[in-house]
Specification:
Elements: E1 2-9, H1 19-30, E2 37-48, E3 56-65, E4 78-81, E5 101-103, H2 107-118, E6 124-126, H3 132-143, H4 177-187, H5 204-220, E7 224-226, E8 229-237, E9 240-248, E10 254-258, E11 262-264, H6 271-280, E12 284-286, E13 289-298, H7 299-307, E14 324-326, E15 332-339, E16 343-346, E17 356-359, E18 368-377, H8 389-406, E19 429-433, H9 434-439, E20 469-471, H10 480-496, E21 506-511, E22 518-520, E23 533-535, H11 546-576
Helix pairs in contact: 2-5, 2-11, 4-11
Length: 577
């Protein structure tokens, strides 16, 4: 078989019902007759929308040609021998001593634990939040106005923060494990489309079942998963992990378990865990991160801006974008975690602190598009040298947003005035239209501006944040260097994507948890300066999304298993001597 790449096809040929048309266009690109294609397997598909008047598909396929037929590929089409991806080999090792402890059931923790379980190490997996079905009920209740559950919410619980997202699986990293991650997701119930889409996504509605199935696979392979169980402390002896103190969040009971291997895949919102591991002696360092807002546009506006006259073609679906610019003082402003046809979600995990995120369901059928609009925060933007100063900064912004949404003075970076949030206003998010923000208007007229429609888009956006918004001046809850960078960047971003600075677009604050502000330092064997402690995934500072976190979990698991195999070989040598 041969692999054919960079082959342009029509949008119609990408539709599942048009397999014959795809075969015909592939044959034309190879310079052969359709009957010469004995087999055809779609490997990858993407959209080329650089020319709005000629939006088309681009595919990579594996084909077998009839005997004696020679391909004469069109210009730009590349052909090579097809090599199927290798499957992930998991060695089987014998558990000798305490079983590994895995902390957190986000993608890093789940994939690490699954590998360890299949290797025969029977990991103990602990998660401070609830199992995914109970978690969904708690999150939905909070959206409807119930009090915040600080144990289980959009940040904490089975599946991690990524469960309530778009389930985006595209990543900027290069690793053979990416294919293994996608295949494992499909085995757990994700759509097979993720194996071929250039920008694969699952959607929050489907992720719930996928996460549940991954946990069941861990348990079936010999692992144990405990929910509402928080890591309260590490036992360290002579510079090595010797055990862990676990707290049952339902009863408050504490238990100490023996462990010489602990994988810390806690996610970037486990702020108390960062402080705990530092107290235990782990080395931490600051890292760059970003803060900002969620910006919502009419999805129709984005579709038209990206795809022009082809915007409504059924092969395209809801369009996305990814934008980045630099301000005059070289500060990066960019979009992140873009959710087509999605909604802004209430992502708080601490009382009196408000943050937002975004999600889409698999169909991406909502009226709005949303994305994080972020401004980079450099380590030297923060005072002192405490590695956890970024966490302090995030909390200040979230506290300011919470108070501003309540109608109280936000006091960004300063002392708060007295006053408690009225219960009805708790977790109301501050918001402002782009038009009002750029004009310096606090949005006295409910944040709506009299703006002409852009293309087929309506004149204003209806915010999707579930607990309601309060129209405010966002400069009252974000520091000046952030709002000044946003104001400078919006027109530049609009030149990259027509309509991005659309006056009726809505910005909702505060998006403060796009990435971890701290890194738990590890060596080339994935271990902290505390031997046996493996910082892993996004919270530890080594990933930036579902796929990269899952890949990091696999790499850490491979390192643990390799060490166990090496120890076994050394023991055999000792016995032989």
């Amino acid at each position: 078989m041969i692999q054919v790449s960079n082959l342009p096809v029509s949008l119609d040929a990408l539709l599942p019902k048009n397999a014959a048309l795809l075969k015909k266009e592939v044959a034309r690109g190879l310079g052969v007759k359709p009957g010469s294609l004995m087999t055809l397997k779609l490997l990858k598909r993407s959209i080329d929308a650089r020319k709005k008047s000629k939006v088309h598909g681009v595919v990579t396929v594996a084909v077998a040609l009839a005997e004696g037929v020679e391909a004469r590929p069109a210009k730009g089409v590349s052909v090579k021998v097809y090599e199927a991806a290798e499957s992930l080999e998991v060695p089987c090792v014998e558990l000798d001593g305490p079983r590994p402890l895995v902390v957190g059931t986000g993608p890093a923790g789940l994939f690490c634990a699954l590998y360890l379980a299949r290797a025969g190490l029977r990991p103990l997996v602990v998660e401070r939040g609830a199992a995914v079905d109970e978690r969904v009920e708690i999150v939905e209740a909070f959206n409807d106005g119930a009090p915040l559950d600080t144990r289980t919410n959009i940040q904490f619980g089975e599946g991690g923060a990524g469960t309530f997202s778009d389930g985006k699986l595209n990543t900027g990293i290069k690793s053979p494990h990416i294919r293994h991650v996608l295949e494992t997701f499909v085995e757990a119930g994700a759509p097979e489309d993720i194996l071929v889409d250039a920008k694969p996504h699952i959607g929050t509605d489907l992720l719930v079942g996928v996460v549940r199935n991954l946990r069941c696979a861990i348990e079936a392979a010999g692992g144990e998963v405990r929910f509402l169980t928080r890591l309260a402390g590490l036992e360290v002896e002579e510079g090595r992990v010797a055990g862990a103190r676990l707290v049952d969040e339902r009863t408050g009971a504490e238990e100490t378990v023996g462990a010489d291997c602990a994988v810390l895949a806690c996610g970037h919102s486990a702020r108390d865990t960062f402080a705990m591991v530092r107290e235990a002696g782990a080395a931490l360092e600051r890292k760059p991160f970003a803060v900002g807002v969620r910006i919502e546009h009419p999805q129709a506006l984005i579709n038209e801006a990206q795809c022009g006259p082809s915007a409504n073609h059924p092969a395209l679906g809801a369009a996305d974008y990814k934008l980045a610019v630099k301000t005059a003082d070289d500060r990066g402003v960019y979009t992140f975690c873009m959710c087509p046809g999605g909604e802004v979600v209430a992502a708080a995990s601490e009382e009196g602190h408000l943050c937002v995120n975004g999600m889409s369901r698999h169909a991406r059928a909502g009226a709005n598009a949303n994305a994080a609009l972020l401004v980079e925060v450099r380590p030297d933007d923060l005072p002192g040298d405490d590695p956890l100063e970024g966490v302090v900064f995030q909390r200040q912004l979230e506290r300011a947003a919470y108070r501003l949404g309540c109608g109280l003075p936000a006091a960004v970076g300063g002392r708060e005035e007295a006053g408690a949030c009225p219960p009805r206003a708790a977790f109301t998010a501050p918001a402002q239209t782009v038009g009002d923000f750029l004009a310096g208007d606090a949005g006295a007229s409910a944040g709506c501006v009299a703006a002409a429609a852009v293309g087929s888009a309506p004149a204003a956006v209806d915010p999707t944040y579930p607990r309601g918004v309060a129209w405010c001046d966002l400069r009252d809850c974000l520091p000046a260097f952030v709002t000044e960078a946003m104001a400078e960047a919006l027109p530049m971003l609009d030149r990259k994507l027509r309509g991005f600075a659309y006056p009726g677009a809505v910005m909702t604050a505060v998006e403060a948890r796009s990435s971890s502000p701290v890194r738990i330092v590890r060596d080339n064997r994935f271990q902290s300066n505390i031997a046996g402690l493996y910082p892993c995934g996004e919270g530890a500072g080594y990933a930036g999304g579902i796929t990269s976190a899952a890949v990091d979990g696999l790499r850490v698991a491979e390192a643990i298993v390799a060490d166990r195999v090496a120890e076994g070989v050394s023991d055999e040598d000792a016995d032989a001597r």
